[in-house]
Amino acid sequence: MDDIKKEYMNHNSNVLLKKVRDILLFLSSLYPEILFSLFLIPTRFNALTEKFNIPSFLNPVYLLFAVIVCIIFIKVTLNNSCFIIPRLLLLSFIGFIIFMAIGLSYSVAFQYGLSKTLEFITLSSLACFAPFFLLNNLNVFERFLKTYIVLGFFLSIFIFVSSPYAFQFYSSKDYPKFHTTLGNNYLGLQYILGISILTMIYYFMFSRRMNKIQVTLAVLLTLLLGAALLYSPGKGPIISLFLTVIIMSLVSLKIDRQKIVFNRKTLLYTLSVLAGGILLLSTVGWMFTLRLQKMFEPGYYGMTERVVNSKIAFQVFLNHPFFGAGIGSFSEYAAKIEGIERMKYPHNLPLEIISEMGLTGFILFAFMIGYAFKQLFFLANKYRETPYHNLSNVVISFLIFTFLSSLTGGNINNPLLFAWIGIAFVLEPMINGIEV
């Protein structure tokens, strides 16, 4: 009797464990790559949380973080496939975190520095290393990219429908503020649009699977995304996008028998983007033109603020050249300009790092981003004549665009930048189908 009862209990336990396993497998298969792309959107959704009185701990970013961490835990627990994280990337990233933590001990802005460090340890770390667990094949990676296309499309429609500012301001000496029902984070919006445009150009338009109708639709969609990008007021992302396209055309150059050979398709797309940009600037790009003109006016507060704070950041570095003034410290040194909110960081990533973490922190950061570029250029050369060439190409464009944007946007907690660094090392295993 006892044996029958024991066997019955074992059977029930096995059934229960099987059901739990099935549930975990189901949860881990809910397109986590789409959730990851949403997590990387450069916004904290502050406008939505304030509008609907949502508690800070229910912020969508934190919820997405928790869900993605759970999915990764489930995948690891169930021995699902993942890619090996390169040792040098892991060690340099851990070293960077340790140095940030040490900087807290002598930071003059401990509370802000602690918040900044914790955000880097959680959000930026997940952005860098989640691709090794989530993006394990080409179909998944393509869905990840398509999410940005869909986001860019709906954001473009939303921008033009919501009319964040009126055209009657066009002739005024000042310009209106950008504001929509979803807030006024136009830079975050422009980063998504920039990534969407680069995805269209360097991934889908380079694909050999597209027919003429699909190419035509892709061109029209790219024009819509470009119009929305230029209609938004941020200067940095627009300039960064044009520079990225130019740099990508230079990267595509190849020396063959002492002759410089252009990639015709890359050159064609570069000229098309520049021509389309000039056309759009003369129409929907009026705000960008207006703000660009303001930069050259004597005493323009935006330029004065940037220049003054850049000088301060460099002076802080000279005073603390090797280890910096401590994470978060720049917020206490930033210029106090009447009528302007004081900067928490110098809006230039290299200046932020050298002022708060010195040469040591900058070397660690430069190694990480240089290591990623080295891997991407190696892959671009290796797969130049294969259908996989667009994979490395598009991630190179992402990394260039995001880094250039950080030169005017700053903030070390930049999940997009660290995501591209991580993704640089999952492309080759993805192509080869080598999983461990």
Record the SSE blueprint:
Layout: H1 2-28, H2 32-39, H3 46-51, H4 60-77, H5 87-103, H6 110-129, H7 131-134, H8 138-162, H9 186-204, H10 212-231, H11 236-251, E1 254-256, E2 259-261, H12 264-281, H13 286-295, H14 301-319, H15 330-333, H16 349-382, H17 389-409, H18 415-423, H19 427-432
Antiparallel strand pairs: 1-2
Helix pairs in contact: 1-4, 2-4, 2-8, 5-6, 5-16, 6-18, 8-9, 8-10, 9-10, 9-11, 9-17, 10-12, 11-12, 11-17, 14-16, 16-17, 17-18
Q: Overview of this structure, please?
A:
The model is unreliable at 166-172 (pLDDT under 50). The two termini are 46 Å apart. This protein has 436 residues and is mostly helical. It has three domains: 1-80; 92-134 and 311-436, no CATH class; 138-297, no CATH class. The protein has helices at residues 2-28, 32-39, 46-51, 60-77, 87-103, 110-129, 131-134, 138-162, 186-204, 212-231, 236-251, 264-281, 286-295, 301-319, 330-333, 349-382, 389-409, 415-423, 427-432, and strands at residues 254-256, 259-261.
Quick structural gist:
The chain has 19 helices and two strands.
Q: Quaternary arrangement of the chains shown? A: single chain
Radius of gyration, whole Å: 24 Å
Fraction of residues in helix: 55-70%
Number of domains: 3
| Secondary structure tally: strands | 2
The strand line-up of the biggest sheet is 1-2
Order of helices and strands: HHHHHHHHHHHEEHHHHHHHH
> Could you tell me the strand content as a percent range?
under 5%
Q: What best-fitting shape do the alpha-carbon axes yield? A: globular
- Count of helices? 19
Tell me the structural class.
mainly alpha
Unreliable residue stretches: 166-172
Termini distance? 46 Å
Mind describing the biggest β-sheet? 2 strands, antiparallel
